[in-house]
Every structure is written in structure tokens, then in C-alpha cells.
Design goal:
Blueprint (H helix, E strand, L loop, with lengths): L10 E5 L3 E6 L6 E8 L6 E5 L7 E3 L5 E3 L5 E4 L2 E4 L2 H9 L5 E5 L12 H10 L1 E7 L9 E5 L8 E6 L3 E8 L3 E7 L5 H4 L6 E3 H9 L12 E3 L6 H7 L8
Helix pairs in contact: 1-2
Length: 245
Amino acid sequence: MIMSNNFNPDKQHTLKKSVSISGTGLHTGILADITLKPANAGFGFQFQRVDLPNKPIIKADCDLVTDTSRGTTLEANGAKVSTVEHLLAALVGMGVDNCLIEINGPEVPIMDGSSMPYIEIIEEAGVEEQNAAKAWYSIDENIYLTDEEKKGGDGNYARAGVPDNYIDRFQFPVLGTQHAELKRMRDFKEKISSCRTFCFLHELEMLLEHNLIKGGDVNNAIVVVDKPVGDAELDRLKRYLKKTI
């Protein structure tokens, strides 16, 4: 595993070499190629739309987030890139601080619906320490984010805690309570990276009606059947369905 006992969390890190991967966007259905490249200290994560004139840069900055409805979309310099969360999670989870992400399409490939394929190419590239200190933000008290609209129990919530603790809990009457906890970032690959994209059947119908999930299938998402389904409806949706209950 890259983040070994010799890994210095107080130093910045980048990739040792460039590495590429290709796949289809979950919502757009557009095939895109991604190349992860080493970057200088302080560069952070920046996407470059190499398919557009002037190859505009989009920083992975929370102030540039323009949509979080069905994934995270970043927008800057007249360009967008969407569904960035799994790739960015993999980079952070594997200790990478600086990386140029070249992409020739509007959406990051969904791959199998998890961060694991990106973990694998990061491991292939390798990670190296840079001669620069990492800037840390200290959390002095627990921070909660709750979605009260999600019914069941006390809703869904995420917590960034003290000292290095992250908890994410969902309340779904169909599935029961789903709970995940990450106390050390070095455990990201083992405990978090294989978690896959999922949605409920009633959400799937809405997504189809809004011309989304054009690239969705049973290989990159899990669909939970949360209501009775007739044969006609099942036939219409069968290529998206993977019954989990």
C-alpha cells in the first residue's frame, strides 16, 4: 500500500509518473480519457479540458462548485467537469496533494461506481514526497451536516470530528441504518474506496425522465428496488436494475 508507515503526512506529495484511464460518464454517457500527471508543490488538483479551445483549467475548489444534485460539478473559465467526487476522493485517500487531471470530455468516467479503479492507477503511478510542507486546517469541534428531508430515524448526517475522524450515516427504512467511519486516511483504500454508487428505483425513474444516467448500467451502479415493480416496468428498466433486497 502506498501510504506506508514511512509516509510523512506533513509533506506534500504528487505522482511519480503520468497514468491514464478511460471510461463512460454516468450521466452524459460520453466516453472520456483521463490522464493524471505529476504537479509542483502548491498546485493542488486542477482539471484541464483538453478537448476545448484554449484547454481551460478548472481548479478543484469548493467555491467553483455549481451543482451537487446528482454528483459534484465544477465550473470555471467557461468550462465544466462533473462527477468529480470519486477521482478526487481517491487522490486524497492515497495521500496525493498535487495533480494535473487532463480530461477530454465533460464528465469524469464512473468506472465501476467506486473510487477503486482510480486507486489502482494511482498505485500504478506511485506517489512521491515533495520538498514542501502541507498546510493543515485544524477542526476544534465536531462539524455536522444533516439532510432532514431524508426520512427515517433522525435523517442522514455526516460529521467531521476531532481529531481525525469522519462519520457518515444514512437512514433508509428499506435498508436499515448504514454507517461508515474513517479515523485514519491511510485506511481509505481498505474501508472506503470500494463503496459503490447507488440509488433507489423511484430515483431512477426520475433520472431517466430528466435525460440523465445515459451511461448507467448494472456494472457501475446498484439500484435498490424499494417498491413493487410490474413486468412492463421491469422490462423498461431492466438494463439499469440490480436488485439488492
